[in-house]
Design a protein that fits this description.
Elements (H helix, E strand, L loop, with lengths): L6 E4 L5 H12 L3 E4 L17 E2 L7 H6 L3 H19 L5 E5 L1 E3 L9 H11 L3 E2 L3 E6 H13 L5 E5 L2 E4 H11 L8 E2 L10 E2 L14 H14 L6
Parallel strand pairs: 1-2, 3-11, 4-8, 5-7, 6-10
Antiparallel strand pairs: 7-9
Length: about 230
């Protein structure tokens, strides 16, 4: 399906991901009607190196509420409602479930994911003993379009480029920006948590070539600088 003579509606079009989605749709020749206003995976299960998260995982609203993860809770409840509505109304629904979304900004406002990442870059001298589940905003926007244009697309898709420890993220950032005042040590002296995996098997069917992590990190920091959120 090409964008020629196709009209689509993008809700929340001023948002971080949606603004990129609108841009890519317009580049493909779509007419965009815009309205304005994660497997995210918080279900109490133990995450270890032998665990592979895939599209069968859903966050548990009770777990999100106990941990006061209100943003994740809202996304979980919204997806539940969408699937229920689609089933009741015979709608062909596809859900895109990205990790922590980074990459360049189009508009000078920070959403949840970039605000979280900016706090890490500008934060205290310690970093969390945990994993970053990262994906570039351009890949997330492209996944939405591919899921719309590919007739065989169905169900849920985990869109994650890299599962990596915070320590490794800051090593890459330090190599790119030696003068950046980055976090220096883990919040405790325990060995670093081992990485688990998030399946990319289904995402590959959307013909996505993920932006390299180094490029995403660099473009994110450059956007922070351009919009005055970060000074180096």
């Amino acid at each position: 399906m090409s964008g020629e003579e196709k009209v689509v509606c993008v809700t929340g079009a001023t948002g971080y991901i949606a603004s990129w989605l609108v841009k890519l749709l317009l580049q493909r020749g779509y007419t965009v009607k815009a309205t304005v206003r994660d497997t995210i995976m918080f279900n109490g299960k133990t995450l270890s190196p032998d665990v592979v998260i895939d599209e069968t995982w859903f966050s548990d609203p009770i777990s999100c509420e106990k941990l006061k993860l209100w943003y994740m809770l809202s996304k979980t409840l919204a997806e539940e409602a969408a699937w229920k509505f689609a089933e009741e109304n015979d709608i062909d629904l596809v859900a895109i479930n990205p990790g922590l979304v980074i990459g360049p900004l189009i508009q000078p406002t920070l959403g949840f994911s970039l605000e979280t990442f900016l706090k890490l870059v500008k934060g205290t001298k310690v970093f969390p003993d945990g994993m970053c589940i990262l994906v570039d905003v351009r890949d997330v926007a492209n996944a939405h379009i591919q899921a719309f244009e590919i007739p065989a697309a169905s169900g849920r898709y985990c869109i994650v480029a890299k599962v990596i420890h915070y320590f490794e993220v800051f090593k890459i950032l330090h190599g790119l920006y030696p003068t950046l005042n980055l976090l220096e040590k883990c919040e405790d002296d325990k060995p670093l948590l081992p990485a688990y995996k998030i399946s990319q098997d289904k995402a590959k069917s959307l013909v996505i070539s993920f932006v390299p992590l180094e490029v995403s990190l660099r473009d994110t920091v450059e956007s922070f600088k351009d919009y005055g959120f970060l000074t180096i």
